[in-house]
Amino acid sequence: MAEAVMGPLLGRLQELALSEVKKLVAVDDDIRSLHDKLMWMQAFLRDAGPRRRLQNNEIIRVYVRQIRDAVFDAEDAVDQYFLRVDISMLHRYSDVIIKFFTNCTTQVTVRHTLSSKIKSINTRLDGIIANKEKYIMDDEAAKTINPWKPSTIISAIAEKLDEDLEIPLVGRDDQLENLKNKLIKTTKNTTPMVISVVGKSGVGKTMLVKDMYERVPIKSHFDVQAWVSFAPNLSASNIQRLILLRLTGDACPKEELERKLSGELKEKSYLLVIDGEVSSTEWKYFLANLPTDNAKSRVVRITHTKPEDAQVRGFGHDKIELEHFDEDTTKRLFLETLFMEDRSERHNNGLISSSAAAAKDERRVKEAKKYAKLVFRVTAGLPLAVVLLSGLLRTKEYPGEWKKVFEHLKLRSKESKRLDIILSMCFDDLPHDLKSCFLYFAALPLNTLVRARTLVCMWMAEGFLRPIEGKTMEKVGENYLKELIDRRLVILPPVENAAPGDEKITVQTKVLEFLLIEAQEANFVEIHSGDDVPSLSTARRLSLQNHRDKYAALAKTLPKLRSILSNFEKEEPGNEGETKKEDKLTNAEPNSCLPGRKGNNTHHKPKDLIRKLLQVSEFLRVICLDGLEVGDELPSEIGNVLHLQYLGITSCSLQKISPSIGKLKRLQTLDVRGTKVSTLPQEFWKIQTLRHVFGSLNMPTKRVGKLEQLQTLMTVKPADVWDENYLDNMKLLRALYLRELTDQTMLSLRSVSRLKYLLILSISREKILGELFTSIKLPRLQVMVLKGELMEATPTKSPNSNLPNLTKLSLEGTKVSQGFINRLGNMPCLATLTLYQNSCRETHLVFSEGFQSLKNLTLDSDLEHIEIEGPAFPHIAVLEVFTRRGKKFCMVIKGRNDDIVKKIKIQEDKRDSIEFNYKDVPFM
């Protein structure tokens, strides 16, 4: 994979050519020679990737491997040079510098060392090129193979990340009804039921269950619901922990898991969805510890495994099996996924007249139907293959490029693995710069949701992104994500009220399997998920996925490491290992950090392993440790990894960050969400490269440095030094989350109007300035979240003039008036409005007119009476109402057709008895 190998290095070589090293003419010439050779080799590698999948040519594999190893050595030499220069510049008279010079490692020596290494690599590359000409020239068989050529640009139709464009569920009506009956009907069974939804990967099992899980009749039928997704072969106790975390939001010690989970579920009707492959032993152990006292309870298992292999007494068992589609259903799915953006455009913006849209649809559908039979032929009716193919064609012009796509597929349609063919084509079609970004999903465990903004920040730190045409790296990364979603390679599950960047994304199982093969071929990432730990001395990226022993791989020496990632659920400190009972089930040695030494009682403390990592892995650029205990304090050795650009220590008991973090002069992102870190050392706030800071933090009592690149500040409590000039050092802020403001700092918030690029503003305080809506102008603001009483001021202007681009508004405890709600109706772009508890002063609310762009309205408040009149909400898609226990509720809809009723979701907290009163429309 050319970009994963070459991309970051070419950028570093350009940086090197502009540095002090150019003072040595010979070095400068060697660098330019190396840069030119790598560019030619990059072109070869770009062509070799697709050919490798079409032709099993071992000579090509050897050549690619040799190039990759030489490139890695070059990267090591360049990084070593920059690291030594950075060390020399830390403190002019510090002990580090004295040691630096006493070891005779002066700047000149470092340059000469680099020169020697680059000359050696150039000579090595000359030999590789000579061998290519000797062994690969005039390969006639290769000339007959025509690999798919990648796109050169990003497509122009990618949707916004927050666009609600779920893949439609097509052709599963019978299975949906069957699943509904098995979930709700209890006339025959006297025990809880396990319902296994079975089928090959890609047939739509998760989509089917998700559709039913979110429906109002299901939500109102069960007392307790939880959905957990995880990577294969998770232990029973970890599944229990996940469920308890979903139900309570709290981590739990292992010895209390069974008791606490039983307490949450006992004597209640529960619905548990288990989305992940589990061994038969662990599955039986898991079910055996669930309460069976309520026959209405259900456990839905999404699996490839036959349910007969893991039945447990105390539960009834049933299954729903999904197969491939027939030709007609395949055609329906293809057409619906192909033209989703047309429906969205009409529904969301109303920019196309119905007649013009109908004519446009009719013409395009007629053209697409010509290929319907061929779609079935090349996909064999597998829903995932159909969706991926439609995603590819959405980026192509009709008819010329469509014809090329199908001609390429027809040539390979006789091969058995049709989904792999389509996946290869979708991957090869990606623009070159996008492939490394997509390959990064291989480092994430199966069924893992990752925040879009987190992923983009890691791409930046890896060197995969660079500013293009005046766009920031973040904007380029967002566009890349849009492209991957638009191509259906990345899944964007719908998330209520997610701010831009907070959306969570993932990839489908078969897509991940394909990426893992590509990542292995490119030596992109090492994954530790089993009991054995391979040699990691040359690993450049490491993904920790072993739930049984999270720290085993850290016992290894990792001198070449650039990135380390983990994604575990938060647990109580001191419970990093599995219980003895579970270890006996699998004959595993508990808490062994030295695999292969049975009975060895020598264990490493996690904080010691982290300290060793920071001491040895000096080239680290990305540390993303989620759910991994590192101790109460991040070791001072964090100051050793001077090239670190992304530091994420989340979901653990960390309390303090060492002041040595101030040495990280390249740091772009810090994420300490889910920890106990409340303050950061003053040295941290002097890092001028900071772009994103995430956590629940107190701002320092002293002024911060010039943070001119800072874009995200989440979630902070301003100190008293925060005055009207405080934000002048953060003029590029795009997202600002504030909490617990004092009266003084609240008044200084008027200066927020100076933040011309601000997109997201969140404020949590007992009383909030009403001027946010009346006199403070934020022309680019898209999302506003307010928690606290809004002190309404007499409006001098309509909110639509101060907040012309506001699309999402969430209110909680604001106690606004009916007049305020009426003024919101005039905002031209408001698409999502959420009213939580105590958001309104009155219990009777009328929506009489306006809200012309509103698509999603959520009412989770103490409202007792709602009236909706004809002119309001012309483009509403979802109207969701959460009711309160013991309160009567009435909704009146006037002068509207039945269409709005179909979009209303009435949900009950505990299935309370509620009265409904619909006028002019029937009750659903």
Automatic annotation (TrEMBL):
Q: Does the keyword Coiled coil apply?
A: yes
Q: Where is the Disease resistance N-terminal domain?
A: 5-86
Q: Which InterPro entries match?
A: Apaf_helical, Disease_R_plants, LRR_dom_sf, LRR_R13L4/SHOC2-like, NB-ARC, P-loop_NTPase, RX-like_CC, Rx_N
The organism's place on the tree of life at top rank = Eukaryota
Single Gene Ontology BP annotation: plant-type hypersensitive response
Q: Which SUPFAM superfamilies is this protein grouped with?
A: P-loop containing nucleoside triphosphate hydrolases (SSF52540), RNI-like (SSF52047)
- Outline the extent of the NB-ARC domain: 173-341
| Keyword Repeat listed | yes
The UniProt keyword set, sorted, is: Coiled coil, Leucine-rich repeat, Nucleotide-binding, Plant defense, Repeat
Q: Which GO terms describe its molecular function?
A: nucleotide binding
**Where is region (Disordered) located?**
566-605
The portions of this protein that span the membrane are none
> According to the UniProt entry, which residue ranges have a biased composition of type Basic and acidic residues?
568-586
Q: In this protein, which residues make up the domain named Disease resistance protein winged helix?
A: 448-491
The Disease resistance R13L4/SHOC-2-like LRR domain is annotated at 617-881
Coiled coil regions in record:
none
User: Which Gene3D superfamilies does the entry mention?
Assistant: 1.20.5.4130, Helical domain of apoptotic protease-activating factors, P-loop containing nucleotide triphosphate hydrolases, Ribonuclease Inhibitor, Winged helix-like DNA-binding domain superfamily/Winged helix DNA-binding domain
UniProt family annotation: Belongs to the disease resistance NB-LRR family.
Protein name (record): Uncharacterized protein
